[in-house]
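Can't paste images in this forum, so I'm doing it all in text. The chain is below; anyone willing to post the predicted structure tokens underneath?
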Amino acid sequence: MLSTFIWFFLRVKGRISRQEFSLGFFGLVLVDILVIRIGTRFGSAPRYYTNSPPGDDVSITSLLLILSLWPFAAIIVKRLHDLNVSGWWALAILGVPHLAGALHERTWIPYLAIVGTLSLLPGLKGDNRFGRDPLARAGI
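Text version of the structure:
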């Protein structure tokens, strides 16, 4: 069980299906929301979630949110692998805030489009250069 958890959230090798991606991604979003809610309750929330002026201190909540970026990256890379696309394309997500600014849109709209696309596109059938088909691995 622990090795599956480590592979799913911490390793970037392999492939995951649409269902695994959706459950993992939205599970991580829920964990992040919980961390923010608890951090706000105890006064250690990032400054942009409160009305306080910005400070130089780094809260525990901020560190936990920064640490959660790696599991997000790991499942996005594995989902790209299922589409037979290099995981390095996940770096393109870093350009989303600039794209949203150029289109005069809120930042979350392009992110939602990316997550929706990765959740809906079927993966490549059969094995590819990144590993076995996750549906065949599950016996589907």
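The longest helix spans residues 18-41. The chain has a mean pLDDT of 86.
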